[in-house]
Amino acid sequence: MSVTHDARVSVRTATGVQRPGLRAWPGIDNPAAWIVAIILLIMPLIANGFFLIEIFATTLILGTIALSLMFLAGYGGMVSLMQLTIAGFAAYMVAVFGTSDNANISLGWPWWLAVPMALALATAFGTLGGALAVRTEGIYTIMITLAIGAAFYYFTNQNWAIFNGHTGINNVGTPRFWGINWRADIPFYYIVLGVAALCYFAVEYISRAPFGLALQGVRDNPRRMAALGFNVNAHRVAAYAFASFVAALAGVLQVWNYRQISPGSVSVGACIDILIIAIVGGITRPVGPYIGALIFVLLRTFALDFLVKIGLDGNRFRLLIGLGFLAIVFWSSDGVIGLWQRWRQRATPTRPIGRSGQRSGQGSGHG
Amino acid sequence: MTRFVERHPAWALIVIIAIALALWLIFAVWPPGLEEAIGRKRVFLNAVFNGITLGGLYFLVASGFTLIFGLMRNVNLAHGSLYLFGGYVGYAISASTGSWILSFIIAFILTALVGILLQVIVFRRMEGQDLRQTMVTIGLSIVFADLMLWACGGDFYQIQTPSWLIGPVELPLITALKSSGEPVYLRYPLVRLVIFAASVVIGIAMWLALNRTRIGMIIRAGVDDRDILAATGVRIQIVFVLVFALGAGLAGIAGVVGGTFQSLSPGEDIRFLLASLVVVIVGGMGSIPGAALGALIIGLAEQLGSVYIPTYAIVVTFLIMVLVLALRPQGLLARR
């Protein structure tokens, strides 16, 4: 996947200051993007059920949550740690409005009613949280969104009436219609792939639509944008609303994937995992979160075996993640994409330094 | 103070009425009707005292956090890890030597050393890059948490309270009257009172050091404008290291206190990180009096909440934060 985007960027740098809004979809003229797309489409032929769901579907779900963070952080300059909380909220709402084992909590609505309800509520929740967070800037945003996420985690742990305390809600119903069980491996993979692609292209589209361009202007210089007549806070809250919707979609998929939801899935550690995924992948382009998610899921799944094989304690998976994250933050401000891009630039030294050079301090927009 | 009253007479009146009501609730003998409505006075007083002493603990954690932020604009999200590290060190020292006081000293020194290492090795390299520093502290907190889990396991530890502090003490506060008319006084654990007194002493000492000494003057100047301060010839890097050591050391001390009050286990680091975040958001980033006020409010809200509305205690804390953000985004006592 990284190939497609790297190529796109090199096109941009080679043609100089082309307006991004005037260009066609990224990667449409790029064979590598088509290859990745085709591989993703025919994945069920290649991979067995374990790989299909545990690796690829999980990657796409986590990647979509991280994509919503990437949208806020990369285009809006707002690092929100509550994206997983919003996804978790949507997941809880699906469980509460839909069907599950906890008959006294779940209302038993059909999925086509429960899911829009969950999406609407989670979007409203995220927008409210965003409206709160935009009252502050930069690093304060991290702290406030982290506090919101942690408060939600403790709340779900303590509340038994709606969230069923620390046991959570089990055996959440999944959709079945047209004679197909949509939670079976292959249909579910295609649902996840479809939603992820939808979100990915929506983010791509918005990033070059007038709203996205204004948002990037707000990121780079809020004062000047305000002087130009843009309502800075409204743009930020709208960005939160869109990101919340993306996160909520992923949250619905997540609860269908695991068929249960409990406070453990919205813990503070899990919120930070989303940040790690986005940062490791790179938050300047929408493809970054998916690369980060793939690395994270592969590490999470195979680190144990790998560590045991080289004679270390298998439980040190988080240490590995933490050290890898530190290394990325230390050496590449643009995640894995940035590393890849720099490596390519070194391979072809004649090319002028492009975006990665200008955006090397990715914190610059967060003043 | 007088300026506040002049500028916000309505708020000042509300605050005065609230304080008077609180004092009456604490000192007066409750009439029977009130006892029926909200329960025994002993429960209420215990919750208030637990809240105040918990506030003292929160203040110890949050003051270091806010001090580091105020001077270096560094949101140290590894602060909770320093707290837990200090607690484990304190446990190890007190278990091996049996000395409670010594565990404070060693925990302070060791966490301060960790703080110095962090500042010298990590944060000095990325000065001015707020977001990147914050990311690094997140990474560090993950690494520290896993290293501590590796070293200490997932068990609960509690630091032994020294024998001269065990047991309750009778306070001159009447909780109820016996049928014979004889007053019943509140009994409260001595160790909590001592720790609270110690945190008050530390708070006042910090305030004095910041406002009455030369180094405090330098730090305050650095909070206002560190570039100009560096331009006047102050060796600001040394000040940074000192402040980071002090902030980290305070977190270490708080760890020992928390280990005595409550217990130490993986996950406590996140809990106290969250507590200090909320405390400084409520009180105002970078302000020591703000941290004290925020700690008191949050401690009281948590304890009173857990007594009177048990399932929603955390929501009360959160609501306070939301309210402060909505009305005064910079925090209650921030100057900005």
UniProtKB/TrEMBL annotation, chain A:
Query: Membrane topology type, per the record?
Result: Multi-pass membrane protein
Matching Pfam families, A to Z? BPD_transp_2
The protein's name in its UniProt record: ABC transporter ATP-binding protein
Q: Which organism is it from?
A: Bradyrhizobium iriomotense
Parts of the chain that traverse the membrane: 32-51, 56-75, 81-99, 111-132, 138-156, 186-203, 237-258, 265-284, 290-308, 320-340
GO terms, molecular function: ATP binding
Q: Where in the cell is it found?
A: Cell membrane
Query: What are the alphabetically sorted keywords of the record?
Result: ATP-binding, Cell membrane, Membrane, Nucleotide-binding, Transmembrane, Transmembrane helix
Q: Which InterPro entries does the protein's record reference?
A: ABC_transp_permease, LivM-like
Entry's PANTHER family? ABC TRANSPORTER ATP-BINDING PROTEIN, HIGH-AFFINITY BRANCHED-CHAIN AMINO ACID TRANSPORT SYSTEM PERMEASE
UniProtKB/TrEMBL annotation, chain B:
- Regions that span the bilayer: 12-31, 43-69, 76-94, 100-123, 135-157, 190-210, 238-261, 273-300, 307-327
Would the keyword Flavoprotein turn up in this protein's UniProt record?
no
Keyword Cell membrane belongs to the record:
yes
Name its cellular compartments. Cell membrane
Membrane topology term reads: Multi-pass membrane protein
- Keyword annotations from UniProtKB, A to Z: Amino-acid transport, Cell membrane, Membrane, Transmembrane, Transmembrane helix, Transport
Q: Which InterPro entries match?
A: ABC_transp_permease, BCAA_transport_permease
Alphabetized CDD domains for the sequence? TM_PBP1_LivH_like
Highest taxon in the source lineage: Bacteria
Protein family according to the UniProt entry: Belongs to the binding-protein-dependent transport system permease family. LivHM subfamily.
Q: What is this protein called?
A: Branched-chain amino acid ABC transporter permease
Species lineage, top-down? Bacteria, Pseudomonadati, Pseudomonadota, Alphaproteobacteria, Hyphomicrobiales
